[in-house]
Amino acid sequence: MSIEIKVPPLPESVSEATVVTWHKQPGDSVTRDENLVDIETDKVVLEVPAPSDGVLGDIKAGEGETVMADQVLGLLDEGKAAAASGKKEAPAKQAAEGAGAEAAEADKELTPAVRRLVTENNLNASQISATGPGGRLTKEDVLAHMKGNGAEQAAPAREQPAPTASAGEAKAEAPRKAPAPLPEPGERAERRVPMTRLRQRIAERLVEAQQTAAMLTTFNEVNMQPVMELRKRYKDLFEKTHDARLGYMGFFVKAAVEALKRFPAVNASIDGKDVIYHGYHDIGIAVSSPRGLVVPVLRDADHMSFAGVENTIADFGVRARDGKLSMDDLTGGTFSVTNGGIFGSLLSTPILNPPQSAILGMHKIQERPMAENGQVVIRPMMYLALSYDHRIVDGKEAVSFLVTIKDMIEDPARLLLEV
């Protein structure tokens, strides 16, 4: 019996998606809940699992095609997995049935990123210690294994002459393409690459922000020495107690929350002719990922501890890198923080994340000569930038908001005392 493989339901804000990668081809055996295809929306990459055991039939939507919610991606012939795999794998089962079963079981649990890393380095997933949730293998597990015995074992394996391939193996290797030839000297090469759906959405939102908001940016600078001294004094104890790294972002998120409480217009948004004042503080944290910039949200940041903020942001970074952020992670937010300093940016004007009315930009910490009490001293300084929507935030509020953050960072005890 044929079962339709359909695009899963998409959120209201997402109307279509793009087929990115088929992990199986027609005729391949699949198991229930095994990832068959990745589809990309303008926010996240979704995995479409197999609804049942069987053999993949016709593919109705190829890679690169645009699909809608509930559209048929392909067909699955239910109940044929055992027969198909029996013909293809009988010799392998007779040779090493136990090892093959372990490898197959391990492969079912691999994410696309981990599976690619295992395949490219000729590793056996069943021989790698898994530390992820539910005993799943993570990318960090594979990298740690490669640093140990895995890398040394994989390298000689790749250097050995390849055995003569059978007809089935030769067919599987056929799609591999030869490396592209290097351009000739003086050749003015160009290549056209379609924008990813995420990149398209980023472009749309940036243009939207500049066309619909009266955007203005105010700047200040902050002496980071008090925070740096505090971190140096307590970072080891903090990590030991909370199992979290004490970074700078926690200080700025907590300072931003206190400033938002004092200046609610900065935490507001415009809806038509109405201003919506949010009674909660959901802080978006700009994170760079292989697919582009994403902004996962810290829900109710005013109720989070320093350790909670730091752990959640670290988790966002890992999941953004592995493409595991969910739609809920990226939805909403009343204010955003972006840190271009990790890339070396000294000063920039961040663009609003609609419909939010403001965004805080952090930058590189750089030692500069400063005047204190008539003396020139060297201090680790950071430029801060606040871009805001002048339609609902006045200049006085914006400047005062940024000064409040500056005061709290330069005297971190005020964060504890909320003064």
Rounded to an integer in angstroms, the radius of gyration calculated over CA atoms is 26 Å
Count the E strands: 19
Number of contiguous helices: 10
Note poorly predicted spans.
Answer: 82-101, 150-177
State the order of secondary-structure elements, H for helix, E for strand. Answer: EEEEEEEEHHHHHEHHEEEEEEHEEEEHH
Summarize the amount of helix as a percent range. Answer: 25-40%
Short description:
With 419 residues, this protein is of the alpha+beta class.
Question: How would the blueprint of this fold be written?
Answer:
Blueprint: E1 2-6, E2 16-22, E3 29-30, E4 35-40, E5 45-49, E6 54-59, E7 66-68, E8 72-78, H1 81-108, H2 112-120, H3 139-159, H4 167-173, H5 197-212, E9 215-223, H6 225-242, H7 249-262, E10 268-271, E11 274-277, E12 283-285, E13 287-289, E14 292-294, E15 297-298, H8 306-321, E16 335-339, E17 358-362, E18 366-372, E19 375-389, H9 395-410, H10 413-417
Parallel strand pairs: 12-16, 16-17
Antiparallel strand pairs: 1-8, 2-4, 2-7, 3-6, 4-5, 6-8, 9-19, 10-11, 12-15, 13-14, 17-19, 18-19
